[in-house]
Design the sequence.
């Protein structure tokens, strides 16, 4: 009798963590592609690291008092807000460390002080995104969701084009801010094929989590919606390819790539920009 409630508690906790992490990625991924933050983090003194953590705690605590990343709220809000703040900061630290490792901006050869500085400074927007998860793209389901989903079933082609359009808009907005910078060539030069494969898998998992797992913006309606690619797996893959296309176009638009460049250069640059573009594309699909 106690097994099912325990499973529900764990499932709810896991969903809350996924929602918080997805909010962190939506809010913090552009800053992770900023070399100035890498440099500041690698040179920062321990005193400033502690100040950054204190600043994160205060701001995230205030955000958790009003909304936070959990679906459920408590009557004893202040103690729970403290616990949620610690968890939000931990999620931000873990996510920023993971992406820094993925981008090869942190390696086993990096000193502990430099690694801590980069992680802490990069985790500030991540932690804010975690605390803003419900406010960024909160679940807006209502009693008409099922009826709207049924209506959408009759126009599969329209639903598919809407998703493609939302993906293109979201991916282009994010890629537009990152493509003209020098970070993409730097990161692409350091990425070997195994890391590129890890970038693809990470992009797909984050996109799936944002749209189908985090509980944002009419998640159940999206699962019921029908269309050419309107299944979680196929839609995620389709949107990733569309996001890569948007990223490649932005790299060409800003003359970071030309048609005389080898296809391998197009591939590694596009895959490197594909992560933030895919996150933007996932947000675009939720916004339509």
Sequence:
């Amino acid at each position: 009798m106690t097994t099912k409630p325990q499973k529900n508690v764990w499932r709810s906790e896991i969903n809350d963590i996924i929602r918080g992490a997805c909010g962190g990625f939506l809010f913090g991924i552009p800053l992770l592609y900023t070399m100035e933050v890498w440099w500041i983090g690698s040179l920062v003194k321990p005193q400033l690291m502690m100040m950054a953590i204190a600043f994160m705690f205060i701001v995230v605590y205030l955000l958790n008092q009003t909304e936070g990343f959990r679906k459920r709220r408590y009557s004893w809000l202040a103690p729970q807000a403290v616990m949620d703040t610690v968890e939000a900061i931990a999620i931000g630290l873990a996510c920023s460390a993971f992406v820094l490792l993925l981008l090869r901006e942190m390696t086993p050869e990096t000193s502990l002080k430099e690694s801590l500085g980069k992680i802490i400074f990069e985790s500030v927007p991540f932690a804010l995104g975690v605390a803003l998860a419900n406010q960024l793209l909160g679940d807006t389901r209502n009693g008409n969701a099922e009826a709207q989903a049924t209506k959408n079933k009759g126009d599969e082609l329209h639903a598919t084009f809407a998703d493609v359009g939302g993906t293109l808009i979201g991916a282009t907005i994010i890629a537009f801010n990152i493509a003209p910078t020098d970070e993409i060539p730097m990161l692409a030069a350091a990425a070997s094929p195994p890391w590129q494969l890890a970038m693809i898998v990470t992009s797909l998992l984050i996109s799936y989590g944002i749209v189908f797992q985090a509980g944002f913006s009419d998640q159940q309606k999206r699962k019921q919606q029908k269309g050419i690619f309107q299944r979680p797996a196929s839609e995620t893959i389709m949107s990733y390819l569309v996001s890569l296309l948007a990223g490649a176009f932005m790299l060409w638009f800003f003359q970071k790539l030309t048609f005389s460049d080898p296809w391998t250069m197009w591939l590694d640059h596009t895959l490197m920009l594909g992560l933030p573009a895919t996150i933007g594309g996932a947000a675009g699909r939720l916004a339509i």
